[in-house]
Amino acid sequence: MHSDEPAGPAGGRDRRAILLWWGPRTLFVVGAVVLVVESSRGVPLPELYLALGFFAVCSAVFVGRQLGLGHERDPGGHSPRWLLCAAALLSIFGVAALVAHLAGLAWDALPLVGSVLLLLGLGWFVEVWRGAEPGRPRPALLVWGAALMAATALAAVVAALAMPKAKGSLFAVLLIILGVALFVFLPLGLNLLSEWGVRQLHARRSDPGTGAGVRVVAFLGLAVVVLAVLFVVALWYLDWVLAAVLVAVALVLLLAIVSNTHADIALVLAGLCLLAAAPLEYPAPQTLSPTGGQRVLVAMGDSYMSGEGAGSYFEGTDDGGGNECRRSPSAYAVGLTSAGRGFDRMLFLACSGARTYNVNPGSGPGPFRRQPGEPATQIDQLKSLASSFHPALVIVAVGGNDAGFAILGEACLAPGDCETRKPVFVNNLPKVREDLVATYRSLRQAVPADVPIVAVPYPQPIAAAGSCTGVALTKTERDFIRAFVERIDTTMHEAADTAGITYMAEMKDSFATHRLQLCERRKGAAGVNFVDIETVNGLASQRFSPAKWLHNSLHPNERGHAAMRDTFTTWLDSHPELLTPRTPTGREQAKVVAAAEPEPLCGMTDIAVSAHCKVQIRAWELEQVRKGWPWLLLVLFALAVLWAASIAVFSLLPWTGWSYRDPVSRARAR
Fold it and tell me: How far apart are CA 298 and CA 343, in angstroms?
């Protein structure tokens, strides 16, 4: 059996060979293990970033050695057998771990560990395949690479045609097939075709008849790469930050694949571990316990009240598949307890995704349903604590999810003009008003008559600007969103007047007053997240789910909540009567009336009805994506040009025509 370790005098191992060949690979594996372990443990982000930095250093050493000295070879110039065996074992263990996870084995880190093992195994397989017969053009690379790319294209087409109508196990099978095609066949095919292309250019570069032409092609490729870098800079400057990041990642990943190093493995592995990392959580402070408080603020409603979008959450409120209320320490309601407003305690009941029936009491005439992870509906939780404190003020923000604002945002981010779906959303508002009246009246009955209740509307997120750089919405769509938010707020105002509670109109202009609206300044300085990517806590199956990554989008961030807090405190200063003892009026003691069972409304996620608004919108979104296939072809063409340019660039690097060995051993060989 061959060995890739050069023999020293008397058969002893050469220490320098061990350092150059085994050292960097061992360092890379150690760095990967450290990163995977830290990510699996769910450590705080600073500790994870430290592990990521260590892995980056280890990867840089290994990739640098691969670029400078090549890959391990046995004395015959072939890839060592141990590398092939290790690749097979890693791949088998990786597949076994993923299958065990799909079979229901309860170990949270299993999908991450399985994915990393499979990634390393496939990477080492690619290293063996690309290293075979070094320096010689190999038609087999072209054949296998083209076959893998054709299989990828076929799987993508079948999935695009069949998945929209597939259900149950068929959908799961199609999803697995698509995943294998995109994450196994596609990278393998690109690697093999890249190796074939680099070898072809190297062979022609040494030919006097074609060498000059190859050099021209190589420098043209370098020019394309430089233009791509300038394009990324321009996108960033124009505030298309997410687009700039995506283009940069595509460029770096293509260069890494073509380079025949482990740079692509390192990039993907780092991405997996970052996705698996759970966001930082904070313990709930004592002020969130209302018992014993003299001036208790009660905050109820949905995500605009709970603080979703503010980036960090209290422990136990950001668990994917469990409690996803996402109550944030940066929420403006929490800030009111420390902003000199006289509130010493707070009852924080607001929960992301809440609709009116998540607030309604279970004993009332209206529909009710507690949210996952919550002990009861919000009013029932309030009533269960009624004997332990007397609220000073109750604030509530609810109705946006009943009106379908979340699905509206999704529709407007999809291809096509979401304004054409206007009737689907606007026609729901009369029913939303009825439900709000019933909820407000139930809340009025649940608290003592002398406790003021304030309905808080939604701030206008987008400025009325003619042009808007960096926000992927047409002017028609922006105007539609602005008008719809205004109609939701008007609906809340009418319902509050009918139910006899206070309506805080000033909150509508909070972002405008503080100049924090989208389209008024760069997205990074606005008070609203446009598209914000962050995973959740909880099980790995939840953290890796793309459906959980965009929950912060189109929600106020920390700046937005600070502005809302300032607006609220200013408004409260101008209404001191709200916090002074008073005699309840008949209007505030309005009788609770029954609300009809809610019809399927946009934004509802747990009732499957064929005529559901959300089903209609999703079908429309899919149709818009299908109509956008020419743009998809254009993107694929651009990526193909970048890939070809990357191959041309790497053909400029020196090529020896044989496999590198340790410099000391080469000197001895001569």
Answer: 10
pLDDT tens digits along 569-616: 999 988 888 777 555 444 444 444 444 444 444 444 333 443 467 777
User: Is residue 4 a contact partner of residue 73, using CB atoms and an 8 Å limit?
Assistant: yes
Give 313's strand partners: 281
List CB contacts of 147: < 8 A, sequence separation 6 or more. 189
H/E segment holding residue 319: strand 319-320
**CA-wise closest residue to 460 among 518, 399, 523, 417:** 518
Tokens describing residue 323: 């409690």
Q: What is the mean pLDDT of residues 261-272?
A: 88
Rg from Cα positions in the chain: 30
pLDDT of residue 339: 55
Our CA angle for 452, 455, 457, nearest 5°, is 155
Please name every residue paired with 7 in a beta bridge, in sequence order, or none if there are none: 13
Among 288, 284, 251, smallest CA distance to 267 is for: 251
pLDDT bucket at 485, cuts 50 / 70 / 90: very high
**CA 605, CA 601: separation in Å to the nearest integer?**
10
User: Dihedral of CA 459/461/463/466: which sign?
Assistant: negative
pLDDT of residue 23: 83
Strands (E) in 345-445, as ranges, are 345-348, 391-397
Work out the pLDDT band at 179, boundaries 50, 70, 90.
confident
Which of 344-356 are b and which e, b meaning 16 or more Cβ less than 10 Å from the residue's Cβ?
bbbbbbbbbbbbb
Distance CA(617)–CA(407), nearest Å, equals 8
Helix H or strand E encompassing 313: strand 313-314
Assess contact for 159 and 179: CB atoms under 8 A.
Answer: no
Question: In DSSP terms, which residues pair with 346 in a beta bridge?
Answer: 297
Residue 329 has pLDDT above 60, yes or no: yes
Q: What DSSP character marks residue 18?
A: I
pLDDT of residue 405: 87
Pick the more confident residue, 457 or 627: 457
Beta-ladder partners of 393:
297
Residue 369 CB burial class (10 angstroms; 0-12, 13-18, ≥19): middle
Nearest to 231 by CA among 645, 627, 647: 645
- Look at the block and give the residue holding tokens 């496999």: 659
Mean pLDDT of 130-139: 75
CA-to-CA distance for 504 and 496, rounded, in angstroms? Answer: 10
Please give the structure tokens belonging to residue 569: 């405190």
Q: What is the mean pLDDT of the chain?
A: 82
- CA triplet 90, 95, 100: central angle to 5 degrees? 125
Cβ atoms 398, 301 nearer than 8 A: yes
Under the banding of pLDDT at 50, 70 and 90, the label for residue 5 is: very low
Distance CA 323, CA 308 (A): 13
| Helix, strand, coil distribution of the chain in percent, nearest 5 | 60, 5, 35
Check: CB of residue 94 under 8 Å from CB of residue 119. yes
In angstroms, rounded to a whole number, what is the distance separating the alpha carbons of residues 454 and 396? 6
